Amino acid sequence: MAESPQKNDEETQAVRDVLDRLIGERGLSYAAISQMLGRNQAYIHQFIHRGSPQRLAEHDRRFLAEFLAVDEALLGAGSRGGNKARPSAAAAQSHHMHKSVDNLRTIAKLSVGASAGQGALADAEHAIGQIGFDEDWLRKQGLAKAQLSMISVEGDSMEPTLRDGDDILVAQSSNAHNQSRDGIYVLRMDDTLMVKRLSFAPDGRLSVISDNKVYPSRHGLRREQAHIVGRVVWTGRML
Known about the structure:
By secondary structure, the chain is of the alpha+beta class.
């Protein structure tokens, strides 16, 4: 028996509602998501609010599911016109969507910038917003128990890896092993909060490195000269 137009409309509207909610909870914009897809800036807005196109193209759907760290079924895979053999009942789809959205961990975005240039004092560390990350995705990255916060990069000394204005997810850990691996970290030196690449020597000394070679790096520092706040584990930026 053919599916009714009303049933199909419910399914496509459910997809639009969930995509709208996921974008909002992650603090993203329609225009930025559209540009990442290689579309015009109004593409996602038109899909969500005008129903045009009626369904996401398969490659767009797959990209969004991976980027947002959600099951592709939430974005319409398996519905009528989709390419995966999954149940398409609106009630089951809606239940699955809400289950996934409820599985998000809310992470505070702090009003403090980690300098990637000359340095900025961190004297107003309070939350200015929130962003959601899927718990299953965090678990796969080994971050299930990590204390996480989101801050912004200030300056250009970590270009091209990090740019001025990038949001970075910082995992704080009391585990000394997790803070002794080479990588990008947020640290305090001389009462200044900054983001730099750290390299650890076998004797315990460390190098504080700027990826932008225009800026100086410091080598052979004693561990106590730098207070490590946390490791940078994810970054996002507007396009």
